[in-house]
Amino acid sequence: MTFTLTPTYEDNPRLQDLVGRLRDYLDGELADYEAGLGLGPESTYTRAVLEPVWRRSRELGFYGVHLPPDQGGQGLTYTELAALKEEVGASGRILQHSVLGDMGGPLRAGSILQYATDHQLEKYLLPVIRGERACCFSLTETDAGSDVRALRTVAVPEESGGGWRISGHKVFSSAGPFADFSVLIARMAPEPGAPDDAPPVFSAFLVDLDAPGCTVRPGETPMSGEHIESDIVLDNCRVGPEQLLGDVGDGLRIGLGRVTTNRLLHCPTVLGLTRRALGLTLDFARTRQVFGAPLGALQSVQHKLADMTTAYYAARSMTHDALAALDTGGNPRTEAFMCKLFVAESAFRIADEAVQIHGKAGLVRGAEIEWIFRRLRMFRVLTGSSEIQKNGIARDLLSPSRT
Ligand SMILES: Cc1cc2nc3c(=O)[nH]c(=O)nc-3n(C[C@H](O)[C@H](O)[C@H](O)COP(=O)(O)OP(=O)(O)OC[C@H]3O[C@@H](n4cnc5c(N)ncnc54)[C@H](O)[C@@H]3O)c2cc1C
After folding, report:
1. How far is the CA of 141 from the centre of ligand 1 (A)?
2. 139, 224, 293, 401: which one has the fewest Cβ atoms less than 10 Å from its Cβ?
3. Atom of ligand 1 nearest to the CA of 147
C-alpha cells in the first residue's frame, strides 16, 4: 500500500466505508457536540455528557463494532479494529474515547465477556455493550503497579452466604467517574492454617460502585490534565458469589488476560495521536513564515519531518504486521512487546520534534500540539512501561525453548 498520512483502505471496501462514515461523524456531529459544550481536553465533565455519545455511536454502529453480529457488532478483524482506533486517535476529538467504547464501554470490558456467567452477562456486560452501563478496571494500587502481585486489596470469605468482604484502595481506575461497576482484582485472604509462604491467590470481582462500603473518589490528575481517573476505596464491601468473575484464582489471568491482544490494540490509539501531531506539524511547516519563506523550506526542518514520518511508518507497519498474525490465529507475543515499546518510544520522540518545529507556538498552554506532547509522554508508562516490554522481549529471546 502506498504511504499516505491519512490511509484510504481501497483494498478493503468494508473498512473503507466504515472509516469514511467514522471520519464524517468525528469531524461533523461529534465536533459540533463538543463545540456546543465548549469542551477542551482538560475539561471536567460528567456521565451526562458521555451518554449521548455512547447512544449515538451505538446507533451509527461504531460502539462495540468489533463484537460479533449477535452482540450488535460487525465482527471486525483486529486489523480493521486497529484502523478505526487509529482514526479516533487522529481525530482531535475530546470524546474520542467514547465512540468505539474505550471509556467504560465494550472495548474496556474486553475479554472478560468470555468468563461471564449468564447472570453476569445480563446484569453487567450486555448493558455495557448497549451503552446503558459503564465499567472500569481496577488492578493498580499505590504500591502495586508493574508488580501486580504486590496488591493488598483483600477479599475475606463471609461466614455464611458464600460471598466475600473486600477492603482496599485502588488508584488510577480510568473511567471510574462514569462507571457503574468495576472489574476489580483482589487478593484472597489466606485459608486458616495456610503456611506464611503460601503463594498468593488473586480473583476478579464485579463490584457495584454504589454498594455499601464502596466509595469512588476523584483520582489524581495525570499530566494530560484529563479528569477521568478514580480512586476506589473499599471498606468491608460485600460481594456475593454471583459477582466472582471466573473461578477463585483467575484474577491475574483475567486482569492481565489477552495481554498480547490488548498490548497490540493499545498501539493504534497512540499511532492515531502521533498522526495528528504529524498533520499539525506539516500544516505549521507549510504556513509559518521565517526569513521570508515557509518554515518547511528549511532543509533541517524537512529532515526532521522525514525522520518523524519514517518512524511513524515503521511503528505503524510493525503494528499491522503483528495484528495480521493475530488475525490468522498466530500468537505474536514477542512482537506485541516490541510494538508497544517502539510505538510508545517513537511517538514520544515524534511529539518532541513536533513541539520543536512549532517553536514558542508549541510551548503554550492551550496549543493542541503541547497537549498531545503531554498525552503521548504518558504512553511510555501506561499499559506496561517500556522497561517491562524490554523485560518481556529479552525473556522470550533468552528462553531455552527459543532456537
Ligand atoms: C493515566 C493513567 C491511567 C491508568 N489507568 C489504569 C486503569 O484503568 N486501571 C489500572 O488498574 N491501572 C491503571 N493505571 C496504572 C498503570 O497501569 C501503572 O501506572 C503502570 O502499570 C505502571 O505502574 P507504576 O506507575 O506503579 O510504576 P512502577 O511499577 O512503580 O514502576 C516505576 C518505574 O520502574 C520501572 N520498573 C518497574 N518494575 C521494573 C522491572 N521489573 N524491570 C525494569 N523496570 C521496572 C517501570 O518501568 C517504571 O519506569 C493508569 C495509570 C495512569 C497514569
Report:
1. 10
2. 401
3. 29
Kindly report, residue by residue over 217-248, the tens digit of the pLDDT.
999 999 999 999 999 999 999 999 999 999 99
* Distance from Cα 16 to the centre of ligand 1, integer Å: 36
Q: What is the pTM of this model?
A: 0.95
Q: Which of 391, 379, 397 is nearest to 340 (CA)?
A: 379
Q: Which three cell numbers stand for residue 208?
A: 457495584
**Ligand 1 atom index nearest CA of 174:** 8
Distance 145 CA to ligand 1 centre (A): 4
Check if the beta carbon of residue 126 is closer than 8 Å to that of residue 115.
no
> Which of 224, 254, 284 marks a domain boundary?
254
Per-residue pLDDT tens digits for 85-98: 999 999 999 999 99
Domain count, the chain: 3
Q: Could you tell me if residue 7 is inside a domain?
A: no
Residues with CB under 6 A from ligand 1: 137-140, 145-147, 172-174, 222, 229, 378, 381-382, 385, 387-388, 391
- Single-letter code of the amino acid located at 33: Y
| All cell numbers assigned to 174 | 480510568
- Is 188 within a domain? yes
Within 13 A of 71's CA, how many CA atoms are on the CB side? Answer: 21
Residue 27 lies in a domain: yes
In eight-state DSSP terms, residue 116 is -
Q: Are 173 and 136 in contact (CB under 8 A)?
A: yes
